[in-house]
Amino acid sequence: MQTSSDRHEYPAHWEADVVLRDGGTARIRPITVDDAERLVSFYEQVSDESKYYRFFAPYPRLSAKDVHRFTHHDFVDRVGLAATVGGEFIATVRYDRIGADGMAASAPADEAEVAFLVQDAHQGRGVASALLEHIAAVARERDIRRFAAEVLPANSKMIKVFTDAGYQQKRSFEDGVVRLEFDLEPTDRSLAVQRAREQRAEARSVQRLLAPGSVAVIGAGRAPGGVGRSVLANLLGAGFTGRLYAVNKALGEDEKELAGVPAHRSVTDIEGPVDLAVVAVPAAYVPEVVAECGEHGVQGLVVVSAGYAESGPDGRERQRELVRQARTYGMRIIGPNAFGIINTAPDVRLNASLAPETPRSGRIGLFAQSGAIGIALLSRLHRRGGGVTGVTGVSTFVSSGNRADVSGNDVLQYWYEDPDTDVVLMYLESIGNPRKFTRLARRTAAVKPLVVVQGARHGSAPLGHAVRATRLPHTTVSALLRQAGVIRVDTITELVDAGLLLARQPLPAGPRVAILGNSESLGMLTYDACLSEGLRPLPPLDLTTAASARDFYAALSRALADDSCDAVVVTAIPALGETSPGDAALAEALRSAAAANPSKPVLVVHVELGGLAEALSAAASTAPQVGEKAPGAAGGAHPPSLSASLERGDPHRPAEGLPTEGTEGAGTALQAGAAEEATQPLVEAHLIPAYPAAERAVRALSEAVNYAQWRREAAEPGRVPGYEDIDEKGAAEQIDALLARGEGLTLGAEETSALLAGYGIRLRQAWPAPTPDEAARAAEAIGYPVALKTTAPHLRHRADLGGVRLDLADEEQLRRAYAELTELFGGPEELRPVVQGMAPRGVDTIVRTVVDPAAGAVLSFGLAGPASQLLGDMAHRLIPATERDVASLVRSIRTAPLLFGWRGSAPVDTEALEELLLRVSRLVDDHPEVVAVSLEPVVVAPHGLSVLGATVRLARPPARDDLGPRTLPVY
Question: Which one, of 318, 399, 332, lies nearest residue 365 by Cα?
Answer without folding.
Answer: 399
